[in-house]
Specification:
Blueprint (H helix, E strand, L loop, with lengths): L2 E6 L4 H12 L2 E7 L14 E3 L5 H11 L1 E6 L6 H6 L1 H22 L3 E7 L22 H20 L2 E7 L1 E3 L17 H9 L8 E2 L11 E2 L1 E3 H16 L4 E6 L5 E2 H12 L7 E2 L14 H7 L8 H15 L7 H5 L1
Parallel strand pairs: 1-2, 1-4, 2-3, 4-5, 5-6, 6-11, 7-10, 8-13
Antiparallel strand pairs: 9-12
Helix pairs in contact: 1-7, 2-4, 4-5, 6-8, 6-10, 8-10
The protein binds nicotinamide-adenine-dinucleotide and galactose-uridine-5'-diphosphate.
Pathway: Carbohydrate metabolism; galactose metabolism
GO biological process, one term: galactose catabolic process via UDP-galactose, Leloir pathway
Keywords: Carbohydrate metabolism, Isomerase, NAD
C-alpha cells in the first residue's frame, strides 16, 4: 500500500507539481484545499478534500481516514502587494490557518511537516548570495507571516515533538513537461506568466517594473527555479524527515541571478515573438537583487536543480500558456528555436 501524504494547497501551482512528484516517488497525495486560488482539475494524483486548513477537526479526520504519514503545507495567501493592503488576511490565513493545521496534526498524531517558506523572509538583504544565516528582515506582511510560521514550527518541535523542514523558495516558475499543470492565477502578478499573457494578447498593461536599479542593465535580478525542481526538493525533505531529521530550513534557488530584461530576451528567443519592453515605475517593496546560495540544501538534502536552465523554464512555461489560454498556436519555429 502507498504511503499517504496530506498536501495542503495541492490544487495550487507549486502544490500540484509536488503531488505529481509524490506520485512518481510512490506516495499517495491527499489534497486538502479550499480552492480560493487553486484549480480542481490540477488534482490528479489522489483524493481531494474541499476544506480549510484552519479546520483542525477536518485536518485530524482527513489524516486519520487516509493514514497520512506526513504533511506538505503549501496552502497560503501569497501575493506580496495584497499582503500590504490587506495584512489581516495574511496573518489570519498563513499564521492562524497554520495553527489550525498543526492542531489537527497533533490530534491525529502526525509528526512530520514540510513547509513552503519564501525568500521574502530576508527582505532586502543586499546583492550577495543569500545563505540561511543571512539576517531575516521581511518587508511585507506576507514575508512576516512566513517567518512567524517558521518560528511556530520550531516552538511546536520543542513543545510537541513536531518535526519540520522549511523550504525557502526563490522565484518558482515553469510548468510540467507535458503541459498538464502550470501557473494560472487571477490576478496574475508574476513576471514570466504576465510576459506570456501579454504576447498572447491576454493583458495589455505589461511593463518592466523599474529600469533604474543598481544592476548592469538597470532591471531587478531574481533567482528563477523550475517548479519541478522545487517539487523534487519537497520529496527529498519528506524523506529526510522520515529518515530522522528533526528540524531544518533551506534556501531553494538555482544560485544564478537573471535580470528582468534577460528573462524577456529569453522569452523572445524561445517564442520567436518580439516583446514590447515598456519601462514602468518600480513596484513597491521589490528588492533590487535576490539570489540564493543553495549549498546547504545540496549538502544536507542532496538537492540539485535539473530543470532550472532559463531556456527550459521558458520553453515549458510557453507550452503551458499556449495550452491554457487556447491561443493561436505559436509558429513551430518558435518552440524549436
Ligand atoms: N510561487 C512562488 O514563486 C512562491 C515563492 C515562495 C513561496 N511560495 C509559497 O508556496 C506556496 C504555494 O504557492 P503557489 O504559488 O502554488 O500559490 P497558489 O495560490 O497557486 O496555491 C495555494 C493553494 O492553497 C490553497 N489555499 C489557500 N488558503 C487555503 C486555506 N486556508 N485552506 C485550504 N487551502 C488554501 C489555494 O486554493 C491554492 O490551491 C505558498 O505557501 C507560497 O507562499 C510560492
Ligand atoms: O509584470 C511584471 C511582473 C514582474 N516584474 C518584475 O519581475 C521581477 C520578478 O517579479 P515576480 O512578481 O515574478 O516575482 P517576485 O520576485 O516579486 O516574487 C517572488 O518573491 C517574493 C518574495 O520577494 C514572493 O516569495 C513571491 O511569492 C515570489 O513569486 C520583479 O523585479 C518584478 O518587479 C515586471 O517587471 N513586470
Amino acid at each position: 500500500m502507498k504511503t499517504a501524504i496530506l498536501v495542503t494547497g495541492g490544487a495550487g501551482y507549486v502544490g500540484s507539481h509536488a503531488c505529481k512528484a509524490l506520485a512518481a516517488a510512490g506516495y499517495l497525495p491527499v489534497v486538502l484545499d479550499n480552492f480560493s486560488t487553486g484549480h480542481a482539475d490540477f488534482v490528479r494524483w489522489g483524493p481531494q478534500v474541499k476544506g480549510d486548513i484552519a479546520d483542525s477537526a477536518l485536518v485530524a479526520e482527513t489524516i486519520t481516514r487516509h493514514g497520512c504519514a506526513g504533511v506538505m503545507h503549501f496552502a497560503a495567501a501569497s501575493l506580496v502587494g495584497e499582503s500590504v493592503s490587506n495584512p489581516g488576511l495574511y496573518y489570519a490565513n498563513n499564521v492562524g490557518g497554520t495553527l489550525g493545521l498543526l492542531e489537527g496534526m497533533r490530534q491525529a498524531g502526525c509528526r512530520s511537516i514540510v513547509f513552503s517558506s519564501t525568500c521574502a523572509i530576508y527582505g532586502d538583504p543586499g546583492t550577495g548570495p543569500i545563505t540561511e544565516a543571512t539576517a531575516q528582515a521581511p518587508i511585507s506582511p506576507y514575508g512576516a507571516s512566513k517567518q512567524m510560521v517558521e518560528r511556530v514550527l520550531r516552538d511546536f518541535h520543542t513543545a510537541h515533538g513536531l518535526n519540520s523542514i522549511c523550504l525557502r523558495y526563490f522565484n518558482a516558475c515553469g510548468a510540467s513537461e507535458d503541459a498538464e499543470i502550470g501557473e494560472m492565477r487571477d490576478p496574475e502578478t508574476h513576471l514570466i506568466p504576465r510576459a506570456m499573457m501579454s504576447l498572447l494578447g491576454r493583458i495589455r498593461d505589461f511593463a518592466v517594473h523599474g529600469s533604474d536599479y543598481p544592476t548592469a542593465d538597470g532591471t531587478a535580478i531574481r533567482d528563477y527555479i523550475h517548479v519541478r525542481d522545487l517539487a523534487q526538493a519537497h520529496v527529498l525533505a519528506l524523506g529526510a524527515l522520515f529518515g530522522g531529521k528533526k528540524l531544518g530550513a533551506y534556501n531553494l534557488g538555482s544560485g544564478r541571478g537573471a535580470s528582468v530584461l534577460e528573462v524577456l530576451n529569453e522569452i523572445e528567443r524561445v517564442t520567436g515573438r518580439p516583446m514590447a519592453k515598456v519601462s514602468g515605475a518600480r513596484r513597491a517593496g521589490d528588492p533590487p537583487v535576490l539570489v540564493a546560495d543553495g549549498a546547504l540544501a545540496r549538502q544536507e538534502l542532496g538537492f540539485t536543480t535539473r530543470h532550472s536552465a532559463m531556456s527550459r523554464i521558458i520553453e515549458s512555461s510557453w507550452r503551458w500558456h499556449l495550452k491554457a489560454h487556447g491561443a493561436a498556436a505559436a509558429p513551430q519555429a518558435a518552440l524549436a528555436a
